[in-house]
Structure prediction request, 214 residues.
Amino acid sequence: MSDLPLTGIKNARDIGGIPTGSGAVVQPLRLLRSARLNRPTDADLAWLASIGLRTVVDLRQSFEIAAWPDALGELAVERVNVAPSLENEGAGTFFELYLAWLDDSGEAFADAVHALARPGALPALVHCTAGKDRTGVLVALVLDVLGVAEKEIVADYLLSHARLSADPGDVIYQHVITGSLAHVRERFGSAEGYLLAHGVSAEEIAALREGLLG
Prediction:
């Protein structure tokens, strides 16, 4: 994991460099994550162009996009909008919200993986509004599919809370992500099983691994 040289985009980092259980390493500058992209600087856009960014996956609802539209200028990227439901937001704890996303918005996370696994999709950037919760769930699923150990998934997830909150609440949020992964494994065996059950093909799983680890 490493920070990106972006000054107008918050909570931006590369998941490259994270090791897997097999000894492979997530390749650098293949999958980036961030908060909303409504105020990138010219230098930010130039840097994203310099790495050959191909895909932006936006996990926000339409009202969020209307309030803070991506400002990518002439950047030649494929934009994909797949939005987990916010119907249950505010109705319970963060943990309950995450479980609701996993149970009710599996197709949205699967559609994000469809986008990341297609030929020529990488490098890609995934984001929501803060780059913390919906982005955190998607990246956790992807890292689990790649064979990354849970402690590494948790470490990446907690970085967002450390950056965005004066009280990051590591113990609480560690439970949120570990509990979410446990929920997926209990119901589907693994993140791979979860994605397969929601329409991702085995060929797409293989393409995702090849694209991010190869």
In short: The mean pLDDT is 92. The CA atoms of residues 144 and 192 lie 8 Å apart. The radius of gyration is 16 Å. The first strand starts at residue 2 and ends at 3.
